[in-house]
Amino acid sequence: MARSSACAPASSPCPPPRAAQPLLVEDVVVLPDWHGRGIGRRLMESLGAWAGEQRVRRLQLLADRNNGPALDFYSKLGWQTTELICLRKRLPR
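RE: above sequence
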C-alpha cells in the first residue's frame, strides 16, 4: 500500500504508486490558528489531484475516531466511513 508519508525529503520525487494500490493518507494537520482559511480543503484537493495523476483509484484516510471536527471536515469533502479498522504493532528498537 502506498503511503503519503513515504516521501520523506521534499526534494526527492515520490515514486508513483501502482494503479491498483490505494494511497494511504495519514496525519493531515492544520494548526488551530489557521483553521477556517481553506488550507485543509486545498491540501486534500491537491492530494486528490496528485493521486489522480498517478492513476490511484482509491484513497484511504486514517483519522482519530474521537476527533469529531476532523471527521465532519472529511465528511464534507466526500470521505465516507468504512467497517475497516486500523491495527498496529510496535516493533522493538
